[in-house]
Amino acid sequence: MDSTSLALLREHGVDGEAHRAQQLDSALLRQSDLILAMEKIHVAAMVRMAPEASGKVFLLDRWLDGRDIPDPYRQQRPAYEHVYGLIEQGVNSWLRYL
Fold first, then answer.
1. If you average pLDDT over residues 21-48, what whole number do you get?
2. Which of 8, 71, 85 is closest to 93 using CA atoms?
3. Other beta carbons within 10 Å of 61
4. How many folded domains does the chain comprise?
């Protein structure tokens, strides 16, 4: 995980040390109950990868403005903080549906 992301999570009481990236594939999409993506192009790519999973792939910001949440990678700290806020809002908007 990017060091800025890790530091920001730690400041918000989240331990991200155990996080390990995993390559997405159709099997993982099929076995998942809910898949939340940050960008519309990600949703479209996942649906193309596993059309049978289309009913469980959604945009994280679906219940708010339906906007993309940008990847802050290689940007300055304020970009990470902004994206953290967008992700937090998106996650909170999903809670009533889970």
1. 97
2. 85
3. 22
4. 1
